[in-house]
Amino acid sequence: MKLNRRSFIKSAAAGSAIAAAGSIFPGISFAGWQKQEDASGNITWQKAPCRFCGTGCGVLVGMSGDRAVAVKGDPNCSVNKGLCCVKGFHSVQALYGKDRLKKAQVRKNGKMVEVPIAEALDVIADKIKETITKHGKDSVAMYGSGQWTIPDGYVASKLFKGCLGTNNVEANARLCMASAVTGFMTSFGIDEPMGCYEDIEHADVFVTWGNNMAEMHPVLFSRMLASRKRKRDVTIIDFATRTTRSSQASDKSILFKPNTDLAVANAICYEIIRNDWVNWDFVKKHTSFHKGKTNIGYGTEDHFSFKDKPEDISFEEYKTFLQDYTPEKVERISGVSAKDIKYLASLYGDPSKKVTSFWCMGMNQHVRGTWINNLVYNIHLLTGKISTPGNSPFSLTGQPSACGTVREVGTLTHKLPYGVVMKEGARKKAEKIWGLPAGSIDPKPTYHTVEMFRALDRGDIRFMWIQVTNPMITMPNLNRYRDGALKEDRFVVVSDVYPTPTTDVADVILPATMWVEQEGMYGNSERRTQHFDRIVPGPGDTMSDTWQIIEVARRLGFEKQFPWGEDEYIGKIWEEYRQFHDNPKHNMAPYEVLKARSGVQWPFVNGKETRWRFNTKHDPACKKGTDFDFYGKKDGKAWIWARPYEPAAESPDQEYNFWLNTGRVIEHWHTGSMTRRVPVLHNAVPEAYVELNPEDASDLGVVNGEKVKIISRRGSVTMKASINGRGVPPRGMVFVPFFDESYKINEVTLDAFCPISKQPDYKKCAVRLEKA
Amino acid sequence: MKEADKILGKVVTGFAAICLTGALLTLPADAAPDIPQGFDSDGEKIFNRFDETPLAAMTGTDGKRTLDVYYELRQYPGSPPRVPHDVPLSFSGDTMKCLSCHGRGGYDVNQNAYAPVTPHPEYESCAQCHVPRRTEELFVETEWQSIEPPRLGRSEMGGSPPPIPHSLQIREDCIACHTGPAAVAEIRVEHGSRGNCRQCHVPMIATEPRKEFTRNN
Ligand code: SF4
What we know:
The complex is a heterodimer.
Chain A: H1 6-24, E1 34-35, E2 44-49, E3 58-64, E4 67-73, H2 86-89, E5 104-108, E6 111-115, H3 117-135, E7 140-144, H4 150-163, E8 169-171, H5 178-188, H6 199-202, E9 205-209, H7 213-216, H8 218-231, E10 235-240, H9 245-249, E11 252-255, H10 261-274, H11 280-286, E12 287-291, E13 311-313, H12 315-321, H13 327-334, H14 338-349, E14 355-359, H15 361-364, H16 369-382, E15 392-395, H17 402-408, H18 424-433, H19 449-458, E16 463-467, H20 471-474, H21 478-485, E17 491-496, E18 508-511, E19 520-523, E20 528-532, H22 545-555, H23 569-578, H24 591-596, E21 600-601, E22 604-605, E23 608-609, E24 638-642, E25 658-663, H25 679-684, E26 690-692, H26 694-700, E27 707-711, E28 716-723, E29 733-737, E30 765-771
Parallel strand pairs in A: 7-8, 7-16, 9-10, 9-14, 10-11, 12-24, 14-15, 16-17, 17-18, 25-29, 26-28
Antiparallel strand pairs in A: 2-3, 3-4, 5-6, 5-18, 12-13, 19-20, 20-21, 22-23, 25-30, 27-28, 27-30
Chain B: H1 3-21, H2 44-52, H3 55-59, H4 67-72, H5 95-102, E1 107-108, E2 113-114, E3 145-146, H6 174-178
Antiparallel strand pairs in B: 1-2
The complex binds iron/sulfur cluster.
The site of iron/sulfur cluster (SF4) has 13 residues of chain A, from helix 2 and helix 8.
């Protein structure tokens, strides 16, 4: 590979020498930070959403001169009411890593050379033209991010889908939210949660499905704990495959075998019907029953395709389907006792209790991700516990703008800001708003993310521009996709803020502004759009991702589509984008309102935010004269789906006898390219590790800190064992956090995905272990 | 050690032993009925804390914890401090384990130190903001800078009560940080027996520009 960054780690010694001196000479102030010279001592505060997770906390960035010097939680933001987590409190430090990319680089004769950014932009535009001429429009691709700002994603879609006419636009949110989207689309016909975070203060029971919220959505977890403390009779159930911090803080932890959440969800519905806890009035008025294809595959082969075929069924047929899922049968599949299944069902079934379910990657990164989303909605629909304060099936999002930029702007191959490319009406609307001739947008979707990287490997795609994401850490079955990106005749452009394993494979690197170095908007889990100003000047030649795309678009001759000036473009883009959502189901707040407030929820109708969708009392898009209106579906109903239990793509066997599960830790955001440059965060979790069950560790003969080799059919990684550490997997499972580029666990994982959502399953594949 | 200090020391240590065992009590007292919570920068907290903290625990001196020690754990004035002591790798964020020392304070033999008291025991997920240091090394050097912490002793007139130099957000409970043996030596008050702190000390945030009064017509 092309760059070596290990040398930076050596320079770290200087930092620790200072820290050591502080303890040798007590009384001499070596305080935790370097003092800003000539500072007035005054701080001014400006609002922004946090850079990191999809919780979307409001922060106040403290400025002294032109430097960000402090953070506090934004007390005006209803998400977090002044609290943050350790990442948010130290977020501004992520701007100041010494190795910030400040200059553009272009590969010349095999070596990366610094060039003026205008030259790099010329190279990119020329390469796009050349590649299209040689290989056709579908040989160039854009791979973006749920950490793109809304304008970033919007201009990417406009340039690629509109101007260039290729649907080769994807974003890393495919890896984190696609199953949530298809779950919503199949159950409700419209994306994003019906509830809002205020559900937390109303709920009596929380069930978290495969979701370690204490580390992944820490501020929401604290809100849940605070509500339990205040109300006292609140119950939190952690339903998961591994014991975590969240399990400790919960009232009960229930462990299930990987992928069997499908069976348990069905068993809960079986029990709800058997005990007649069904809310018949709701079910009759507002739901209909359906089934789809079964044995739907896993997508591990190139060109895999799948199309579901929904069929209507009756309630009786649904009930018969559930006969396979009695608690006793499911106990044998899932390892969850029939008693616990009945207990869960009784919590959902008790008409006096308001129940909120939370989930995120456990259900989404799942080879039947769409199905398990459907099945949890089934539980809430059968009991009518939905769309009312505290009754909320709540799909949390991982990234700060997976909702805002990927789901709402539609930066996925089949999507447009309004509707899908397959629909003529949606194409026409986009062509009109974008000022393009009819027929500019291709009606056929091309590649979803995994298939897009396969196409790069095969040579169907020759040019790829990657922004705000680090796929050379995060792609499953990584070896194949890295080798593919490095092949001759592949041209990779990477826009980022620090060197990463992805900039290592780049032919052009563009230095990007980060977060509050540019103006933009994010959209969080609860349909909240959050505007931030350019607060800190970006260093060197850095340029916003939006502006990079605009510059290239103009070089390609699309001045008319990208006419804005540098001091106004974000506001102009927002107002243009807003036209796509010109209806009460989706209205977005005007630019001025966004600027003034700490986040605004959509649908924003007649100056009011909608907190509970589909509920006529709260949602002006509902038909009058009914209590609920599930207007996403043509029949006005929410769909209950018969979806069976099917096993994972690869389960442990004789040879590869362990499950491998992967995920995050609270200190690090995704691949750590930002958080590892924050001293407090790196010092707390300096490297990744493999969690083992203590009994498995003793069978293997390893103690804490000894090395273990994790081997799958695709690759291997050797790392230190963590026994009784942050989390404890059950026997037969190991867990590895993926933030550490020195231990690329995705070389081991499998690129199987949910056939409906095309989202890969990072939580399940088979490995064996060796003491190293 | 002076004789009086010795006696005080014993009292405080005795108290510490008691509170270490009694730490499982819920900390914040229940709000008086019908009074909404959370107004006046959670001003109620001061009264509750004052009520439940024995005088002896407010007056002990130790002096080991100085402002330098205090700021060494922070990245800017007001940032959540790191955990300075060893935390077993197996620690998985159990609140009660933190609060058994940091809920009401007390002497810890292993640390040979008094435990600082948290000003916000209502937040239960301690490891959400406070993390230990497993290594001194950095991944990459940082160019981070922040401002000097506020100066001390900013009385407006000789001897007048100094204003509160920091924001009250998450740091509303004066008694937790400014009294007792674990209080930072330079900012510990000598008059812990007066429980209505904001009667004399009012916020005048040192890092915000000072606005003089002007009539607006
Ligand atoms: S919970 Fe998420 S959004 Fe909130 S401060 Fe932490 S990382 Fe940022």
